[in-house]
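Page 47, continued from p. 46.
Same chain as before, 250 aa.
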Amino acid sequence: MRAAIIVAGVSALATAVGVIPASAQSANWTNRARVSINAGGQFGGESFTTTATKPVYVENAVLTTTYAGPTGPMFDGGVAARLKGNFGVGVAVSWFKGKDEGAVTGTVPHPFLFNTPRPINGTASGLERNELATHIQAVYVIPRGKLDVAIAGGPSWFSVKQDLVTDVIYAETYPYDVATFTSATTNRVTKSAVGYNVGVDVGVRFSATFGVGGLVRFTRAPTDLSAANGVAVRVDAGGVQVGGGFRVYF
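Result:
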C-alpha cells in the first residue's frame, strides 16, 4: 500500500506541475537502454525489538532492546533495456549503510537475594545496518522532449547485516542493590531475504546521450535475523530511497 501511494503521488505531482503532460502517454521510447547512477539516502526503516537472557548469579538476566528504523546514505546504479514499445526490463543494485541507537531495558539478578531483580536501562549506540540489494524490474518509460520518466517495479534480493545487542556490561557496588548500565555487547548477524521494489525515475537530457535525474523508490523485504539464544526476530529491510545523479542513454 505504501509503495503504491508513493508511485501514484510522484506521478500525480509530476503531471500537476507540467513535468509530465497528460499527452506524454502517447510518446514513444526510442532508445535501446538507459543507465542511471544515483547517490542519496534511505529512510523509513521499521523499528523492532529483541530480547536476550543470560544466567547471572544462578538466575537469569533479561534484556530487551528496541531499535529505531535506521537512516543513512544510499548509492544506486541501474540499467533498463527496451523490449517493445515503451516497455522494457531492468536491473538495479543499491547499497545502504545506517547507524541506529537501541534503547536497552531489563533486569539483573541480585548477587545475595533470590527473586530480587534489579532494573537496568541504557542506550546502545552505533548499531550498524548494511543492506546490499539487487532489484529486478519491469519498466515503462514515458519520454517527452528532454524529459523521460521510468516507472519500474519487481522483486528484490537483499543481503542484510545488522548489529544486535546480546549482553550488557554494568557496574555494581556493595550492597549491590543497584546495577548501572555501562555499555552493550553486540553481535553482527547476516541474512538474505527476498522482497519487492517499486519506484519512479525522472531524467533530464543535456544531449542525446547524457543527462541528470532523480529517483524515488520504495523497497521492502521481511527478514528473520537470529538474535540471542537462537530466537529469530523479524526485521523489515529496505525503506524509501531518494537519490539523484547521472543518466546515460544508448
